[in-house]
Design goal:
This protein is of the alpha+beta class. It folds into two domains: about 45 residues, no CATH class; about 60 residues, Nuclear Transport Factor 2, Chain: A (Roll), CATH 3.10.450.160. Helices cover about 15% and strands about 20% of the residues. The chain is built from two helices and four strands; from the N terminus they run H-H-E-E-E-E. The protein has a four-stranded antiparallel sheet with strand order 1-2-3-4, with no helix packed on it. This is Nickel/cobalt transporter regulator. InterPro entries: RcnB. It comes from Paragemmobacter aquarius. Keywords: Plasmid, Signal. It holds the Pfam family RcnB.
Length: about 100
């Protein structure tokens, strides 16, 4: 019985790292989302007057007619951040308008 208990403890300690996950506390279903480890509805919500962070990847939307958007005003442009379209000031990167979500 003593050897069985020792073997059981060793087996449990060896198998624990296998079931521990990826170590960052993120469930597997959320790890593959566009914004990793953030539940749906909790992703970034843009606020007017907020500066677009420097490290945030964004893409300029040049075909704004395709999305039914009006021509951007002087000194601003449309950018896509994840699936959000924002109108931002060119000089400062401040969010002037949050226009919606695209797929």
């Amino acid at each position: 019985m003593k050897y069985f208990s020792v073997a059981l403890v060793i087996a449990a300690s060896l198998s624990a790292p296998v079931f521990a996950g990826n170590g960052n506390g993120c469930p597997p279903g959320l790890a593959k989302k566009a914004v990793p480890c953030v539940p749906p509805g909790q992703a970034k919500k843009w606020m007017l007057g907020e500066r677009l962070p420097i490290r945030t990847p964004w893409y300029e939307v040049r075909d704004w007619e395709r999305f039914g958007l009006p021509e951007p005003l002087d000194g601003s442009r449309y950018v896509r951040v994840d699936n959000d379209i924002l109108r931002v000031a060119i000089a400062t990167g401040i969010v002037l308008e949050a226009l919606g979500v695209i797929d």
